[in-house]
Write a structure and sequence with these properties.
By secondary structure, the chain is an alpha+beta fold. Among the domains are: 92 residues, 2-Layer Sandwich (Herpes Virus-1); 107 residues, Roll (Archaeosine Trna-guanine Transglycosylase, Chain: A, domain 4); 89 residues, Methane Monooxygenase Hydroxylase, Chain G, domain 1 (Up-down Bundle), CATH 1.20.58.1480. Helices cover 37% and strands 15% of the residues. It has a five-stranded mixed barrel with strand order 8-10-11-12-13. The chain has a two-stranded antiparallel ribbon with strand order 1-2. The protein has a two-stranded antiparallel sheet with strand order 4-5. The relative contact order is 0.10. The C terminus is likely disordered. The structure holds zinc ion (ZN) (4 copies). One zinc ion binds next to strand 2. It comes from Mycena alexandri. InterPro entries: Lon_prtase_N (IPR003111), Lon_prtase_N_sf (IPR046336), PUA-like_sf (IPR015947), Znf-RING_euk (IPR027370), Znf_RING (IPR001841), Znf_RING/FYVE/PHD (IPR013083), Znf_RING_CS (IPR017907). GO terms for molecular function: ubiquitin protein ligase activity; zinc ion binding.
Length: 490
Amino acid sequence: MDLAALRACLACPVCARTLQNPTTLPCGHTVCQTHQISPCPLPHCAPPPRPARPRIPPASRVNYLPPPPAPLAPPPEHTPKPDVTINKVLALLDSVLGEDSSYDDDDDDILRSAPRSPTVRTRPDSPGPSRPRKRQRIHDDPSDDEGDLLSHLMSAAARQRDTAPHVSLTDRMRPLPPPPSLEKELQTELACEICFMLLYSPVTTPCQHTFCSKCLHRALDHSNLCPLCRDSLPGFSFFDDHPGNQTLETLLATAFPAEYTARGAAIAAEERDARLDTPIFVCMLIFPGHPTALHFFEPRYRLMLRRCLEQDVPSFGMIMPARTGAGAGVTAQTADYGTMLEVRSVQMLADGRSMVETWSTYRFRILERGTLDGYTVGRIERIDDVPDSPSLTLAGPSNEELMETCTAFLHQLRRGTAPWVVQRLNNVYGAPPADPAAFAYWVALILPIDEFEKAKLLPIRSARLRLRLVVHWIEQLNNNWWFTSGCVIF
Ligand SMILES: [Zn+2]
Ligand SMILES: [Zn+2]
Ligand SMILES: [Zn+2]
Ligand SMILES: [Zn+2]
């Protein structure tokens, strides 16, 4: 770990000195509090925003409508808060380097603002205060100039330190190597308070707390309060493509380059793994071939949807919640059957909720299920119809006759006295499908029977058997319907 390089990372981009009481602005720049901070004092400040989540792949056909524009950044406080993480890192470096006596005297201003690294030498031709001072590491080519020769000697002295600890003559020239604990302590200070791992893509909130960008998004799924200080945070959309903390990002990449790269790779792998299993939304019974509008508000499903949207064809499975209490055993089997929903359009709301339009595509059976970040995932097998055997086709009424029975019953319902049935009919999209394979689903949507009973259609691989089951329900309703109606009317 190169202390000089660390120190360089902590230079203020405005005054080029070590940051003093740093505060991080919504643009991601960290500057000393003494500078004007609103707007950002850096000329032409235009940091690249972080790509908004979810990252919709180019091949995706989803109509994704991002959240409405974020509200303006909250007005700066009279005394801006200090950036908590950077302050801690500065304090840590100060504690390591503060007592060292080997500073040179040509930069008193820097000495005043913060202790300097003894391994840093400032070149005589160092640039003006408009940009960070160029610093020279002691390990650079020793033949470069006199300063570097000195650096070389200091380095050599450092190597001898362990074997000759009492050579006082060289004490002043001795560079202070980072104590073994510094790396560990720095890693602790640069850990995210949500995942407890090294910060990755750090984002600093207006309350000056820093989290991994992904962790902050997941925290915002649950609450608009800062996970650390409980300060109110601007809404979800404010952080959607929020620029990262540039100082911390540079510091992380400088201090822990291998670890930082590994973190990025691990996060990408985690995202990939999350897409290997089929996400399952446990909500309601849906049959194939129908549009469904859904409101995503639960934190776990918000995350699930974001992950879905990063696929070329975003889709997830939908199953009914398992029935509890009486009859639970009977429906346990059908609880493993569901329908895939393809996401067609998403309207994100400013607070992270979303309205989602889907189209149900095919049925599936869950072979194995697990949980990922709070939602169900599964290994599934697609269920398709198989051709009916001749004996099944010839037995009983034909498909057309079964469909006519259904249609007649629906007309009977329309003529009946139950307005809610008519309402239910009106809510069903489109005309009855001509295809017997889809017809039974369409009728079942309308029938006033238990949803768990209707779910028995999902595992059936024969259109004809589905029709028969629906006609069976109609017969049962016919047997009980008029009796029930009679009770109501008379
Ligand atoms: Zn400054
Ligand atoms: Zn800026
Ligand atoms: Zn984190
Ligand atoms: Zn906070």
